[in-house]
Every structure is written in C-alpha cells, then in structure tokens.
Amino acid sequence: MDTAPEQPSSARVLSPARGRAAVLAVAATTFSVVTTEMLPVGLLSPIAVALHVSEGTAGLAVTLPGLVAALTAPLLPALAGRADRRSLLVGLALLLALADLASALAPVFAVLLAARLLVGVCVGGIWAVAAGLGHRLVSARAVGRATAVIFSGIAVASVVGVPAGALTGQLAGWRWGFALVGLLAAIVAGLLAALLPPLPAESAVRPAAFRAVLRLASIRSGLLLLALLVTGHFAAYTYVRPVLERAHGIGDGAISALLLLYGVAGVAGNFLGGTVSARSPGRALRTMAAALAATLFLLAALGDGAAVAVTLLVVWGLAYGGVSVAGQNWFSAAAPRAREAVTALFSGVFNAAIALGAAAGGLAVDRAGEPGVLWLGAALAALALAVAARARRTGG
C-alpha cells in the first residue's frame, strides 16, 4: 500500500484559516479524550486508597475503556446513520465531560467503573469519526498534515495532558484531576460547535459496508499489521518503567524525565510519520515496524547501559509516534470512498490491541521477567514487518 490517499471530488467551502481552526478543534478533541482515557495511569494509587480497592483492581479503570472503545468504534457510526458528524462529535465531547464529572464525584469504585464505561463509548466514537475528517476540512494538498495534527492529540496527551492531570491529583487530590479534564472536554465541545462546519454523513455506515471493505486484501493486511504492531508496542511499553529501572539500572528519579523525552520524540514521530505516510503509507509503516523491532530487540539484548537505553527509548518514541497517522493514511488510501467504515474498523482493532498488549505483557513479565516483554514486543513488530512486506509484494 504505497499510494497517497485519493481525494474526493466534492468541493470544500472552508477558507484555509477556517479549515485550520477546525482541524485544531478536532485535535483538541483527540487530546481531551486520550488524556481522559489514560489519566488513571498516574492516579491509580490514590484512587485505590480512596475507594478501598487494590491497585490491580483500580487498573480496571484503564482496561475497561479500551475494551468498550474496541466495540464502540465500529458500532457507533452504524447506529448514528446519517446524523451530522459535527453534532455527533459535540454530543460525545459533552458525554465525556459528564463521565469525567461522574468520575470525580464517584463515592465507590463501581460508580467510577460505570463512568469509565461511558469514557470508552466516547473514545471509540470520537476516534471513529474524528480520525478521518481531515479531507473534509482542508484542501487536498493539506490533508496529510491535517491528519497528522488530528492524531497529534495522542502524543501531546502523553507529554502534557496525563502529567498535568497527575500533577493536579498530587496537589489537590485525584478527584480534581478528573474534574479538570471534564472542564476541558466541555470547552472542547464549545469549540467544536463554533468552529466545525455542518458535516452530514458522506454515506450511511451499514454492516454491509464493513463486509465490503473487509473483502479488500489491503484492508485485511492493514488491520493485521496494526494489530501486531500496537499489541507489540503496548506489551513492552506498559512495563517500560521496570524495564528501565531493573534491566538498565536507571534510577527512579530519572524515569519521569525519560518518559517525557519519549513523549517529545513521539510528537516528532507523529508529524514525521504523517509527512512520509501522506506520500507512501506502506513505506512508512514498514520503516516503523523495522525500527520498533530493532529497538526492542536491542533493549532486550543489551541488559545494561543507561546511555544506550536512553538512545533506544528516543528511537522507540520516534518509531511508534507515527503509527496511528500512518495507519489512518493506509486505510484512507485503501478505501477512499468508505473512510468512516475503515476508520471505525481501524479504531476498534487499535483499542483492542492496546488491551491485548497490556494483558500479554503482564503474562510475559510474570513468566520471563522484564526482558520477556521486550522479546515479545520485538517478535510481534517483526511479524508486523513481515505482513507489511508481503502486502507490498502482493499489492494488498
């Protein structure tokens, strides 16, 4: 899959300035929803203490939204029918704000989990709609960069959003962390309503649309490739802290700075990947898979040496940072007339792979220690590279 996404012939009515503002509003939405999804990572201990559960049980606040999002992403566009996509995004942003408020006020853990279930609906729905909007907001030549900006919400959330929420929780209590991201989601809903044009559905997404795109070899190859790559990444990255501490002897005090460095590299990788994949998504994903496999292999093979580990961590961030946007460009190129259907499938598989990767990494670290998650991640990335290479040879 080495062709740039085909652009629809429908005329665009937004001025360049209005288009850029609309793209930034959608990027703020992805930033908001990813920050909300990952916020409990930095707040697990105080949540567990306050709601009288173990930290392992509190981790369900991270796992549940991913599983629900995997189901919601393909279902919600079909259920929404021909509803205006601007109204749908505004409604989901408001639901996200409500879910965050419910989380902040949760008296018991069961209420928090119910609120996080709503977060999963928002994650799946927002990504299914927002990820493919670039071509409807800007000119054809700017679609690649617009898509990269929309997906930058993922990387920026890891660098700014989640640490800011964790800091708020540390200074004022974990409930204020959720309240802050809830306020952000409400502001985002207002921005979407003000800056997005009407976005009628390009076509109703019916079950037949999913069956039709799944008949395409390039779609099947892309879904398998992304599933392997994302599962491998999260199998290893979920346990990156003990890997750095125990396998590479990096002190606890340096971990936060290194994770911030990884996040900055991820932001750079997102825009670099967006630029390259706008021209050739297949080449971009092959390069990312090769770099990720090599990086994880070297981290596993070189069991000491902090300087080497830091260098490889930066390469890891650069390599994985562009996976989401390159994947979106792959699917847009493979099925340009069914963008919402393929984006929904992409989002569903992506979120399922996140949950699967974290679970697989847990099994690996229990049975083989910290190096085990790196070997697993490297193997899955190598399999993803093999799938990408085969797709290139077969034209799929």
Describe the model:
This protein is mainly alpha-helical and 396 residues long. The protein has two domains: 12-205, Growth Hormone, Chain: A; 207-396, Growth Hormone, Chain: A (Up-down Bundle). Helices cover 82% and strands 0% of the residues. It is built from 17 helices and no strands. It has helices spanning 16-38, 44-51, 55-58, 60-80, 85-105, 109-130, 134-137, 143-172, 174-195, 207-214, 217-237, 240-247, 252-279, 281-301, 306-321, 323-334, 339-394. Helix 4 (60-80) packs across helix 6 and helix 6 crosses helix 17. The longest helix has 56 residues, at 339-394. The radius of gyration is 20 Å and the shape is globular.
Identify the quaternary structure here: single chain
- How many β-strands, per DSSP? 0
Poorly predicted residue ranges = 3-12
CATH class term of the largest domain:
Mainly Alpha
How many angstroms separate the termini?
6 Å
Could you say what the CATH topology of the largest domain is called?
Growth Hormone, Chain: A
Which percent band covers the strand fraction? under 5%
Averaged pLDDT: 82
| Largest sheet report | none
Structural category = mainly alpha
- Work out the radius of gyration: 20 Å
Total domain modules: 2
> CATH homologous superfamily name of the largest domain?
MFS general substrate transporter like domains
User: What sort of overall outline do the alpha carbons produce when their principal axes are compared?
Assistant: globular
Number of helices: 17
| SSE pattern, N- to C-terminal | HHHHHHHHHHHHHHHHH
Percentage of residues assigned to helices = over 70%
**CATH arch. level architecture of the largest domain:** Up-down Bundle
